[in-house]
Amino acid sequence: MEFSIPACIGESDDYSISRTCFMSTATIELDGKIQQLPIVIGSEGEKAVDISDLRAKTGYITLDDGYGNTGSCQSNITFIDGENGILRYRGIPIEEVAQKATFIETAFLIIYGHLPTRPELRHFSDLLTENQYLHEDMKYHFQGFPTRAHPMAMLSAMINAASCYDDGLMHWQWGKGKQFEVYAARLLSQVRTIASYSYRKSCGLPMIYPKKAYKYTANFLHMMFSMPYEDYELKPEVVHALDLIFLLHADHEQNCSTATVRMVASSQANLFASASAGVCALWGPLHGGANQAVIEMLQQIHASGDDGSRFIEAAKDKNSNKKLMGFGHRVYKNYDPRAKIIKAASEKLLKVLNLSDPLLEIAERLESAVLKDSYFIERKLYPNVDFYSGIIMRAIGIPLDMFPVIFAIGRMPGWIANYKEIMEDPHGRIYRPRQVYQGPAQQSFVPIEERG
Ligand code: CMC
User: Fold this and answer.
1) Distance between CA atoms of 287 and 433, rounded to whole angstroms?
2) Alpha carbon of 81 to ligand 1 centroid (Å)
3) Residue 249: exposed, middle, or buried by beta-carbon count in 10 A (0-12, 13-18, 19+)?
4) If exposure means fewest CB atoms within 10 Å of the residue's CB, which of 83, 202, 390, 443 is most exposed?
5) Spatial contact of 162 and 272, defined as CB atoms under 8 Å apart
6) Contact 396, 346 (CB under 8 A)
7) Which residues pair with 299 in a beta bridge?
8) How far is the CA of 357 from the centre of ligand 1 (A)?
9) CA distances from 393 to 102, 164, 385 (A)
10) What's the pLDDT score for residue 11?
């Protein structure tokens, strides 16, 4: 094979090629042979070259470290235009969803593709209530964790464990009966129960059962903070702020954890196993763990008496091993629209609760300095969803290591919807990327006596 022959994909300055592209094929020249590749156009005009037959036709694969330029699927759920800071759930702008919907309405929209009617919403809420209790034996699993176990480890393990308590789920075949809506509601409801139990376990506190009368987010706060002798006082502003955080995390197209859920689902693993893998992918500080890392960074800046400028300099220095957490995004090259909403909500909540948080002041100072700094301007690094969400969670009293857990609860509708898409795809195949092997060429096994 001749690797020196240049390959050119259509839409170059060659007029005939670019015209071919717009007529829905791209032309690629490999080893002197011309290949036509179909162009796929998304409903918002996004263009993709379909290379799925490339290897079969030419022997070539495409190489894209970190999948920065790879469309792994076609999806109907969420649209992001990163250049313009646009995010839409099923076509509805995030700003409108945030202003008008609850998290549960949003979850229905994301999972089922349309806003629920009143009866649909009632039915969905009833299913969430019916499925919110964990099997009593699951308490023994919680007892087995060390007291200081990270709640993300418990969350992932317990979501997976929950699937063992339902034989139906293990043997469930997609498309048979109405089970999906029950399993989807069970996962969405139980993740909240598991999350709060993980927190209670880490504090050595007794577990608090969900209450039938409470709605989703209020119930979570109740299970987190009530005592057997005294119910937690539910402030509407607090419930609303946390509901908003869940809603703003509900889906975000093919991010690391959602792509993981799809990967696992593509082997036809069950819904709970797939979501459990999603929790693990989310945990890292470059993804859902960033909300925890942001607050740790702000605390460090505060404790060191820095006004933020020293940290900014360190974040620009590639040898410092530091990054400005809560800044930058693979897709957004503009202000993350969720960050704008969360910033306004955090200022509002602190005002209503009559709290002042020095970390909010540091965060705002950092943001205004960074937005004027050429390093960040040139690289188009703006605040992302994680930059201000921790301020709200701190104000509510949620401990730091629970922050990624809150992200996971919020992201559950997106994972469920993506799981559904995989299972409903009649042409779906197991996800199985290729690689370019760069290891040693074939060599013989050397017996241990001859190895020196
Ligand atoms: N601080 C300093 N420099 C940064 C940062 C940052 N937060 N983010 C990116 N850069 C630099 C990076 O070093 C690179 O510089 P150069 O071109 O000189 O090598 C350039 O900007 C491009 O960055 P990249 O690493 O190629 O970007 P990526 O798309 O691979 O990574 C990211 C995206 C989110 C992992 C990264 O921006 C980052 O680590 N941010 C901090 C962690 C964070 O806030 N994560 C939450 C993301 S939003 C929630 C979610 O969906 O997960």
Assistant:
1) 22
2) 18
3) buried
4) 443
5) yes
6) no
7) none
8) 26
9) 18, 32, 13
10) 42
Tokens of 359: 């970390």
Residue in the structure block whose two tokens are 């893998």: 277
- Please indicate whether residue 329 is annotated as part of the active site: yes
Q: Is the CB of 322 under 6 A from ligand 1?
A: no
Using a cut of 0.70, tell me whether the model's pTM lies above it: yes
Whether residue 252 has its Cβ less than 6 Å from ligand 1: yes
Q: How many residues does the chain have?
A: 452
Q: Which residue has the tokens 């693979």?
A: 330
- Residue ranges in 271-402 assigned as alpha helix (H): 271-283, 290-304, 309-316, 337-352, 358-370, 374-378, 386-396
Choose the residue to mutate in 381, 387, 407, 415 for probing ligand 1, maximizing ligand atoms within 8 Å of C-beta.
381
Catalytic residue among 231, 386, 401, 425: 386
Block means of pLDDT (10 residues each) for the chain, 452 residues, are 40 35 78 94 94 94 95 96 97 98 98 98 97 93 91 96 84 71 95 96 92 96 96 97 98 98 95 97 96 94 92 94 94 95 96 94 94 96 94 96 97 97 92 97 97 89
Q: Is 50 a catalytic residue?
A: no
